Amino acid sequence: MSLKIIIPTEPRISAEIPSDYPIPPIGEEFYIRFETFITDPKDWEKVKSILDHEALTVEKVEDNKVYLYQGQKADLQGTIESDEYMPSIVQYWAQHPETKPDQF
Q: Is residue 104 part of a domain?
């Protein structure tokens, strides 16, 4: 079973990601090398234009779909879970470098 990320473009862009990829808590920024999974050049340009200006944040997770939100939701930032999430994602990137974003 795989996970799908849903990006808030018009129309929405979605991409399959590994089912074991660590998902941050709701309201936290979603870190992944998007260009590894968004293979259509037109779709990638749309997503890149968002990422050049804003973060993509987890809005909700349901039915193996991770819905992302453009920007950050101030009322949800800084949760306890985020302290637990970062070590797990860093460990995942060490094992799967193709998923690690350039800024890390």
A: no
pLDDT beneath 50, residues of the chain: 77
Cis peptide before 11 (omega within 30 of 0): yes
Tokens of 84: 């637990």
Residue 76 belongs to domain spanning: 3-98
Q: How far apart are CA 73 and CA 59, in angstroms?
A: 9
CA–CA distances in Å: residue 104 to residues 1, 82, 96, 97, 100: 28, 16, 13, 11, 7
Cα 30 to Cα 39: distance, rounded to the nearest angstrom: 18
The Cα 3–Cα 26 span in angstroms is: 16
Q: How many domains does the chain have?
A: 1
The pLDDT value recorded for residue 15 is 97
